[in-house]
Amino acid sequence: MLDIQYVLVGAVSLLILLLIIVQGRKDQNQNERKKYFDYLIGVTVIFCLIDIFWGLVVSGTILSSDWIVFATTLFYFSSTVVAFALLVFVIAYSGYKLKYRRFVYLVLVIPLVIETALLFYNFSSGAIFYVGTDRRYTRGNDSFVKTLYVLDYIYFFVAFIISICAFTKFKKENRKLSYSIVLFCLIPIVTGFLQLLYPNIPYYSIGYMLSCFSIFIFEVVRERERFSRELLRHQQKDILDACSNVLYRNSVPDETINTLIGLLANYYIADRVLLFQLTDDKKGIKAESEWLANGVDSIADEIESIPSSIVEMLVGYCYSDGEYYLNVTEKTTFKTAFFRLFVQQNKIKNIQIVPLIVEGQIIGMIEIENSKEYLHDITIAKTVSFLIYSELLRKRRMEQEKAASGAVIEALSVEYASVFHIDLKDDMLTPYRLDERMKKMYGYNLKKKRKYEKAYKYYINHLVTDELDRIEMLEFCSKESLMHLMHDRTYITKKYKITTDTGYEYYEAKIVKIKGDDDAVHSIVIGIENIDEKIKAQQLEEKNKMIQQKKLESAMEEVETIIYEGQFDKLTGIYNKTSGTEIMHKYLNAKDDGIYYVLLFIDLDKFKYINDNFGHLEGDDILSKVGSVIKSNCRVGDIAVRFGGDEFLVMLKNISDVSLAKKKADLIATEITRISYGKEYSSTCSIGGFITNTRDLEKSMENADKALYEVKNKGRNGIKIVADEVV
Description:
There is one protein chain. The mean pLDDT is 77. By secondary structure, the protein is α+β, with helices and mostly antiparallel strands. It has 23 helices and 18 strands. Helices cover 58% and strands 17% of the residues. The strands form 4 sheets. A 6-stranded antiparallel beta sheet has the order 10-9-8-13-12-11, sandwiched between helices. The chain has 4 domains: 5-214, Rhodopsin 7-helix transmembrane proteins (Rhopdopsin 7-helix transmembrane proteins); 250-396, GAF domain (Beta-Lactamase); 416-530, PAS domain (Beta-Lactamase), CATH 3.30.450; 568-723, Reverse transcriptase/Diguanylate cyclase domain (Alpha-Beta Plaits, 2-Layer Sandwich).
């Protein structure tokens, strides 16, 4: 008979599983893995109950052969069910998505079906186990018993293979998860083998319990890590919110830096936080700010005397890692006796160093000493270091702006009676020089800061009475307008009028941008001067200039009329004979030898008949229209001349082709013919042309005239173009 200890060991396993269930119900994080784990725990609990029941029956507590058979059959069947549940859990836990899920699970059920069949067969054959007449449990055929274990091991080994694959998958992403899966599958393999060798010990219950316990422990650890991360995230958010509030409320860089250093110290629970900048040669340091806990002495003066070798060592560490963590217990860290002594004297247990980096160059460091929290985590320190660096830049910019504004104020004071400095970011106006009118308005207290918006609105509303001028000035002087106007300018000037008892006076404002480290406009200097006399003198001078200009323009118009009438034919609007031939001569003398031109002689047919029968007014109308036709068919550079009476001379430049020249002449002739449409007479013309590159205008005119004469002899209303022999 089995010892009652078998039952007790099984009961302990059951108790542990029940504790896992109770503890698991506290976990609100429900997911796919948790669901399958709950299924596995439930099945395992049922198996442990069956195993305990089997131990009670077989140990003689329940003396009945039927109960022994029933309990043993349930044991074998439930053990395989648990093995199947274990495999299903491993598949879900490893994160594998099965393509043919139903088919796979149908295949996986086959060993369970086989075991069920064998157990039914055992009822009639006793091949696996039987109960003798003495009511004792006895194993049957060893092959059948091992077959049942093999069926369990099919599930174990498949699960183990999947766990190995999962180990490879999660090795880099989640090392703990990969180890837990392998351990989960390995335990039942070992305990199942032991169960086969030593059936009188409940190794199956122990194995299944330990597998579940291993997963439970991993999940507990992972939940704690998640909780720690969540807590850290909230704490990091709190300190970042606090930093944001500091930046929003405080406008003084030194105060902001000191407050940020204090927040950093509180987060890490440090004894000392020191901000220092490197010298230009990177061999020395200068303390910028220091935070001290109660009872901790300052080392700001001491640290500035640290040898250059130590500074170079720290800079080298930061360049290699981007960050550095020192622990005084690591003696190899301190390569110099000086540094070791420095650490000992100041009771430094650990140091966290975060570099301030600008464009790849280290300009300073934040040193956190004796941290009691987040010793190896400098995420927040790096974030706050960026904010501190921004404040250092702002401090430098403000110092530069202060120096620059002083120089601008001094320069403007030479030319302008009133000078003001305006901080656009903080909306502050500081007067440095005031004229009498300004003194009456703002008082004699120089350098008393005032709100800029309130000051300029008071000035404009009291001195600018014209509504349109007042609206325009108010828009111009707003902070937004000035920032926009001065964005890409060094200075601008603005003239405006103010109302006086006798009318109005002109003033000028010169606005100069104070250049900082960035492109944004933070502050300006404004100089204001009364320029009434200068403006009115300029207006008088401009008035006189305008009168003189009108006189000059009138005289020029007369001259231009004379010149025009001397060059152009009044009736046709083209060159007259004298000016036209002169221009042709100038062109021919200046042109290159190889450039050809066409000279056309155009003569209106029977024009005397029109004058005699229809009057000279009609004839003049025809001549005017012929002039328009010729001008419209001339290109830029071509020369058209009224040669005399009803004769016209046209020079078409850069034409050497006879057919092209004839085409141009034909267009002119066709349009001249259209002039008489609807009239009682017809207007036609005869055209003679000569193509050449000679500079001899008289010869060209002679040849063109000969071609025209031939057309007239043939009955008029025709065109003849001849070319020079060289063409």
